[in-house]
Write a structure and sequence with these properties.
The protein has about 425 residues and is α/β, with parallel strands linked by helices. The protein has helices at about 45-50, 55-60, 95-100, 120-130, 145-155, 170-180, 190-205, 215-220, 225-230, 250-265, 285-290, 315-325, 335-345, 355-365, 390-395, 405-415; strands spanning about 10-15, 20-25, 40-45, 90, 105-110, 135-140, 160-165, 185, 210, 240-245, 270-280, 325-330, 375-380. The relative contact order is 0.13. Bound molecules: pyridoxal-5'-phosphate and zinc ion.
């Protein structure tokens, strides 16, 4: 038999986070055969260090996540996504900072990805790997954004997609993936049941699996948000990074990105993570706070993208927050709406409920005096508000409704104390 050439020279192995078993990092290595846990991709930092110096990066003109190709699980000859994923803006926002009592506050608006959420970073990896492996169909289950990002990135790559969504997924997200030509299966059940059905279908029909719960390469895509934050800050590490947490893959990815940069010597310290969940669904934060294992929770929050009662990347998330000596904050739906209004009115940034949950948590942490006022702090907005206009309307209320009459307009302004 022909010996398979070892590809991806910059990757050492896929390692089980629980028992340490090592696997060749290929598309057969997903979860650990021995203990069933998720795997983590281990890089050859010595090899990468020589290839990814600051000056080299500075001269690159690829303003997308692929500018960090050396730190990603793709082959040198892989065809990359045609969509521009990543390199979202990092805004220094003095006015929001003033409101929160933070003098060095930045907002990373990841709603500005091609399908309007941070999930594009993971889906880009999925379609590139699927294409390289010669597969033509990709699939996932999702609360919405993983689905629409997979559908969009698959469409751009010329792959077809099967998407499983729980029936509560907001209409905007479902419409988005229908437009991208995905075959959509809306499951009458919660996220956990949707996930299980998708896993069975993927197994039965052999599609490429873009479930972050299983596929360890997706987190590698998500980590590019941190690579960008550091580079946009001139290779400085923030002191705090606030991020909303559902399954746990994103926050673990955020941590991995900073650790990668630390390992290859591009930053000289690591941030503390602020793990923000909703009061109505916070199994990861509860485990962090109590020191007990993660236990299932109901999914009671308006922030559908982080309503994950049984997180599959929970263990990775716990490790990330603990290693970073981070903090946990839970917020109510009302606090999420408040953050949505605040980001909109003070920064002009429109986030969906889960998109602004990190900012809601940061606000709460700052008000409690948990963040030093001078700390370099970044809030990641993970998804765009147009994805869920029903929630935006709940947060923002109704406009002034009047007939087309100047006298009535003037009277209404007066009644409401609107002067110029
Ligand atoms: C998926 C998602 C998150 C959380 O990511 P997890 O990996 O599930 O923790 C946060 N915000 C938005 C908008 C998302 O789509
Ligand atoms: Zn194991």
């Amino acid at each position: 038999m022909e010996k398979k050439e070892k590809l991806m020279k910059h990757i050492i192995a896929a390692v089980c986070i629980q028992c340490g078993a090592e696997y060749e990092a290929d598309d057969n290595a997903y979860t650990c055969v021995k203990c069933g846990n998720v795997l983590d991709i281990k890089y050859d930092y010595g090899y990468i260090r020589g290839k990814l110096a600051k000056e080299k990066l500075a001269s690159r003109t690829d303003y997308s996540m692929w500018r960090y190709k050396e730190l990603l699980p793709v082959e040198e000859d892989s065809r990359l996504t045609p969509l521009r994923v990543g390199w979202s803006p990092l805004y220094k926002t003095e006015r929001l900072g003033a409101r929160l009592g933070l003098r060095n506050l930045y907002v990373k608006d990841d709603g500005q990805n091609p399908t309007s959420s941070l999930k594009d970073r993971a889906s880009a990896i999925a379609v590139v790997r699927a294409q390289r492996a010669g597969m033509t169909t990709v699939a996932c289950s999702s609360t919405g954004n993983a689905a629409s990002s997979l559908a969009g990135n698959a469409a751009a790559m010329g792959l077809s997609s099967f998407i499983f969504v729980p029936e509560r997924a907001p209409k905007g997200k479902v419409a988005q993936l229908m437009i991208f030509g995905a075959r959509v299966i809306s499951v009458q059940g919660n996220y956990e049941e949707t996930f299980k059905l998708s896993a069975q279908a993927i197994e039965r029909w052999g599609w490429y699996n873009r479930n972050a719960a299983i596929n360890p390469y997706l987190l590698e895509g998500k980590k590019t948000v941190s690579l960008e934050i550091a580079e946009q800050l001139g290779f400085k590490s923030p002191d705090y990074v606030a991020v909303s947490v559902g399954d746990g893959c994103t926050i673990a990815g955020v941590w991995k990105g900073f650790k990668d940069l630390f390992e290859i010597g591009l930053i000289d310290k690591l941030p503390k993570l602020i793990s923000v969940q909703a009061d109505g669904c916070c199994p990861i934060n509860r485990a962090l706070e109590t020191g007990k294992p993660i236990e299932r929770m109901e999914e009671n929050t308006i922030a559908d993208s982080i309503a994950v009662g049984v997180p599959r990347n929970g263990e990775k998330a716990l490790r990330a927050v603990r290693e970073s000596q981070g903090i946990t904050v839970n917020v109510s739906d009302e606090e999420i709406f408040e953050a949505m209004r605040l980001l909109g009115t003070v920064c002009g940034v429109f986030g969906e409920p889960a998109g602004v949950t990190g900012t809601a948590g940061l606000k709460k942490a700052a008000e409690r005096g948990l963040i030093p006022p001078d700390a370099l702090t970044v809030a990641i907005v993970t998804g765009n508000g147009l994805k869920d206009t029903a929630s935006a309307q709940t947060a923002a209320g109704e406009p002034l409704r009047i007939p087309p009459d100047m006298d009535i307009l003037t009277a209404e302004f007066k009644k409401r104390n609107i002067y110029f």
